[in-house]
Design goal:
The chain is α/β, with parallel strands linked by helices. 30% of the residues lie in helices and 19% in strands. Strands 23-24-22-21-16-17-18-25 form an eight-stranded mixed beta sheet, with helices on both faces. Strands 5-6-4-7-8-3-15 form a seven-stranded mixed beta sheet, with helices on both faces. It has a three-stranded antiparallel beta sheet with strand order 10-9-14. A hairpin with a 6-residue loop joins strand 19 and strand 20. Helix 2 crosses helix 4, helix 3 packs parallel to helix 4 and helix 11 packs antiparallel against helix 12. The longest helix is centred in the N-terminal third of the chain and has 18 residues. It is elongated and about 120 Å long. The C terminus is likely disordered.
Amino acid sequence: MQLASLKHLIKTWTECWELPAVLNPWQWAENNIEFSARISPLPGKYSTTATPYVREVLEAAADPKVRHITLCWSAQSSKTTTGLIIVLYSIVNDPGNILLVRPSLQAAQSLSENKLMVAIDENPCLSKQKTANKDDYKKTAIKLKNMIIFVRGASPNQLSAESCKTVFLDETDKYELYKEDKAEADLISLAYERTKFYKNHLKLDTSTPTVPSGSIWQLYQEGDQRQYFMPCVHCGAEFAFKMKYFKFDSDSPKKTACFQCPHCDGIIQEKHKTKMMLAGRWVAQNPNDGEHRSYQLPEFYSPVTRWGELADKFVKAQKKAKFGDFGQLHNFINSSLAEPWEPSENSKREVEQIEALQDSRQKGTVPPEAVGLTIGVDTQDLYFEYVIRAWGRDSMDSWLVSHGRASSFEDLKNILDSDYPCTDGQKTYRITAGLIDSGGHKTSEVYDFCRTHRRYRIRPSKGERTMRRPWDISKVDTKPNGTPLPGGVKLVRVNTTYYKDLLAGKLSLTIDEQGAFRLHSGVDSDYIAHMTAEYRDSRGVWQCPASKRNESWDCEVLNAVCADMIGLRFLNSKQIARNTAKPEPKQDEQDKPPVQSQPRTKKPVKVFQPRRPNPYTTL
């Protein structure tokens, strides 16, 4: 009896002192963490089955050899949730002060209040780490029994106080850019200085990329550049989901989206995705000592995004880009492909590309599809460069009519008074409206010309690199009290970045495509040289080398603005007729007497009669 009691005591004593099974972070999270609907759109126990690519990342956070993790991931890929799991794991298993930084203090507090604090409250393994003092539990500083989580916005005054074991920087590409004229260092370096007293520290940065010089892409390049490879369901060879293997029919992208194996050319449907990802692994493209692991992940792997949706998104973005609107394509490359946007790639134009846009028309003639003409005039010190362009009704189809130089305002008047015949010989056109550059040394002369020649419908213009709208109008002639002078000159402010992007997109179209930017036959080399002079640099700013001239390019920018201002692509048939010269009347029509219009009779005005007398007005 005594012996049995002693054995039971020894067994109980051993079980009490037995160390628990060691679980890596993702296993621990699956066993202990549950997200409510307040935190996640998919409430329930945390699981990595649909996102197996996060497992190695979470394991790396607990690896003593790893000191830096970079997640260059797409939208909807669980990058912020993965960072939160690392924070929650640290609270229970590896306590130490944590610095959590987001682009603004408001965004950081929102993450802290709506996700982090809720997760701590709702999970027992975390809530028991809270102190009894309610004042220790704040949005900007969560004080637990063994550690403090500092929640900060990305500003120098908030990143220069606390020493922390772990620094979690979320959406780093939205932080304020470093400028040499500022006293403080860049924000990322400033935040990582907080870890210098901890040998076992961890740096974690996450973001979708923006441009090649952006912080997350630079950090990804510094690391070992891991990509997620999976075995093909047909041949077993490994490859990563990339845009070059993504196949679909542009006419029905949602129904036909799939991947093609680069090894066996086998077609992989979306139903194979989960199975392939569960068998996948991260492969370093730039192996190093393993201290800095960097991961890139496009949206093809996301469990909440369908391949058909991505294909449809890309097709729509491409269509927009062909007309110069690169916004959706820019977003697709950054948010869906997790790659940086290269502004210069979509702005280069070759001489052969411009020459291929010539049609059979002679210079000075207008195609019958045109609904009106515009003129863009670039002002130089010794001359005026001008370009006349005809515009069609659909998708801003356009045709070059004429271009050249005018040595004076008088020569410019003669050009504005000229008629331009249609190629069908049935009608002639006059210039509908135009814009003239008011920059340089002739600002007052340009204003006077526009003021005294209103019948030409030509207005002064000024280019600006950044504007909220494509174009806007400012007052020039005003009364002493600041109100506009009736009939006075108004300056057209032009968003040059927007319209140069538009022209670059239209010049990428072939001559047979809708919305093409067509030229007349025999275009001289000067015009073509001007149209290929400018390019976008790595910052997305349009530049013109000092050795090249770009007057015709600037004139075409003004033409595009003018066409938008007067709405040539929205004109109806009656308005189109006003833009053409009236044909001579036929002989038999000249002999007909004019039609006499009938006088219009006025309808009697109805007088209101009350149904019964008003006691307040009746005598």
